[in-house]
Design brief:
alpha+beta, binds coenzyme A
Length: 171
């Protein structure tokens, strides 16, 4: 059984272990995503209600984080990272985390969630290419991978450059 719940104090180490295992990193060095999570926390740009873990038999096997971001001047969220322990992948954990974080963001009246990722994977969660909606990446090289999931508060008018929290600049 997998439970999705909010991160609580004491989870940080297990969350780091998830990302270090899910993403490439040199032996003994944290993954860039682990460093990113720490930097976002330090900067106060994480959203506590949108840091979710997946727990199986008491072990944290996955994590997703949303952080403060802007689409032009409109506050929204950037989703990253999403990671699942390799030994627990392809069993629906990543999907459960993504559905949960989108629903939680909607409940917080966030207008949209944006991420960089493989459109083939994220399409199933309602993400669409950002470009045709007039949502542009900070780095033109990201264009193909920038995707937006609009939520209930989206009024359809926002356009412009999407900016992650500053901690992403170090990625
Ligand atoms: C991407 C990730 C979070 C998915 O988690 P998961 O628990 O394995 O996902 P689910 O079991 O819910 O879904 C698995 C499905 O996603 C697909 N999938 C996973 N990664 C994919 C990718 N990059 N592109 C396309 N499809 C992908 C699988 O093929 C599988 O599809 P299928 O069920 O049709 O065969 C996980 O594989 C992971 O941690 N990967 C390494 C880190 C990463 O790349 N994170 C995403 C970028 S931030």
């Amino acid at each position: 059984m997998v439970l999705i719940r909010r991160e609580v104090p004491g989870d940080q180490r297990a969350i780091a272990a998830v990302h270090d295992a899910a993403f490439p990193c040199a032996e003994g060095t944290p993954a860039a995503e682990t460093v990113l999570v720490d930097a976002l926390r330090t900067a106060g740009d994480t959203i506590a209600a949108l840091s979710l873990v997946a727990e199986r038999d008491g072990q944290i096997v996955g994590h997703v984080l949303a952080s403060r971001a802007h689409l032009d001047t409109l506050p929204c969220v950037g989703l990253a990272p999403l990671g699942v322990l390799p030994s627990h992948q392809r069993r629906g954990v990543g999907s459960a985390l993504m559905h949960a974080v989108l629903a939680a963001a909607d409940a917080l009246d966030v207008p949209a969630a944006v991420l960089l990722g493989d459109p083939a994977y994220y399409r199933r969660f309602g993400f669409q290419p950002a470009g045709p909606r007039g949502v542009l990446p900070q780095d033109p090289g990201w264009a193909e991978h920038l995707q937006i999931r609009t939520l209930n508060r989206w009024d359809g008018r926002a356009r412009g450059v999407f900016r992650y929290a500053p901690a992403f600049a170090a990625l």
